[in-house]
Write a structure and sequence with these properties.
Order of helices and strands: HH
Number of helices: 2
Radius of gyration: 31 Å
Largest sheet: none
Shape: rod-shaped
Number of domains: 1
Distance between the termini: 50 Å
Strand content: under 5%
Structural class: mainly alpha
């Protein structure tokens, strides 16, 4: 079949085949890169929220430790009540972050179960 074609026609078909193959490889590569980008974006978004909640946990615990120190060192009842109020507020903030983190983890767990 190819032996009946002129050399220029054979070269043209060869280049067309190579070009089509390169085009196919480029399209498949672009599709794969898009999938990877979408996956990394979703992972980043989830990690950002988890990181924010972890920072909230650390900050609340750190600030409560300082407040407990100040309670021990408080010399007047007003200062003592102020620090105890702060400890309760920080505990509330910690509990809010813990609730949000639990909801995030449950949502991720259910989406992973649906994906499997």
């Amino acid at each position: 079949m190819f032996s009946q074609l002129k050399i220029s026609q054979r070269l043209g078909l060869g280049f067309a085949f190579i070009f089509a193959l390169l085009l196919l490889i480029a399209l498949v590569g672009m599709q794969r890169v898009n999938v990877i980008d979408n996956t990394l974006t979703s992972v980043r978004d989830g990690a950002t929220l988890k990181q924010r909640y972890a920072i909230n946990f650390r900050g609340s615990v750190h600030d409560r430790a300082i407040a407990v120190r100040d309670v021990v060192l408080a010399s007047d009842p007003a200062r003592l009540n102020q620090e105890l109020t702060l400890i309760k507020e920080l505990d509330s903030f910690y509990q809010q972050s813990a609730k949000s983190m639990s909801q995030l983890m449950l949502a991720e767990a259910s989406s992973v179960e649906r994906a499997c």
